[in-house]
Amino acid sequence: MNDPERTMLLSVHPRFATAILAGTKTVEVRRQRVAAPPGTPVLLYATAPTMAIVGLARIASVQVASPREIWSASRTAAGISRREYDAYMSGALQASGLSLEAPVAFESPVPLATLRASGPFHPPQSYRYLTREDLRKMAVAAPDGGAALRDTLSELVRA
After folding, report:
1. Is 155 helix (H, G, I), strand (E, B) or coil?
2. The whole model's pTM is what?
3. Residue 125 needs a FRET pair 20 to 30 A away by CA distance; which of 30, 33, 51, 61 works?
4. Whether the bond into 49 is cis, omega within 30 of 0
5. How far apart are CA 100 and CA 40, in angstroms?
């Protein structure tokens, strides 16, 4: 997808989604290289037991480095203990720290069943980029998903 305004769908554990949306977790770490420009919209998919899109943030910056360097740069903002981080990064040669800004919690999360009502929808293991068609389907599937999601998706589809 060559669209510079692509949207990322990011799967996170519910506790991390809550912390991101509360603004207490401002860096999300990943085991692989993430190449996304600042300003990229990020839809947050909270995994089981929530299984819903719960909000939106934007990428402020992405740092790609060794796991040790990412920990040094983000330990106070990552919302994860050193033990959890080391277990997650075990065996990884590089890591990414996604600095997130402008979080918006959706008043009504959009459940997985609703997302699947408009066609095949598979939450990513880590993250994936959404096409405009994906966004259109989400906007149609989420009539009860809250004004914030509909407005956000409409804005992204028009971009």
Report:
1. helix
2. 0.88
3. 61
4. yes
5. 10
Locate 103 and state its tokens: 């979080």
Cα separation, 82 vs 16, in Å, equals: 15
Q: Are 52 and 112 within 8 A, CB to CB?
A: yes
The single-letter code of the amino acid at 108 is: S
Comparing 27 with 151, which gets the higher pLDDT?
A: 27
Phi, psi of 77 (to 5 degrees): -110, -5
Q: And the tokens for 73?
A: 């740069």
102: left (phi over 0), alpha (psi -120 to 50) or beta: left
Tell me the per-residue pLDDT of 49-65, one tens digit each, with 9 for 90 and over. Answer: 999 999 999 999 999 99
Residue 159, both tokens: 């971009």
Distance, in Å, from the CA atom of 110 to the CA atom of 142, rounded to the nearest integer, reads: 6
Does the CA dihedral 17-133-60-28 come out positive or negative? positive
131: number of Cβ within 10 Å: 12
Cβ 23 vs Cβ 137: under 8 Å: no
Q: If 0-12 CB within 10 Å is exposed, 13-18 middle and 19+ buried, where does residue 7 land?
A: buried
- Residue 35 corresponds to which amino acid? A
User: At residue 5, does pLDDT exceed 70?
Assistant: no
Q: Quick one: which of 124, 126, 120, 118 has its CA closest to 153?
A: 118
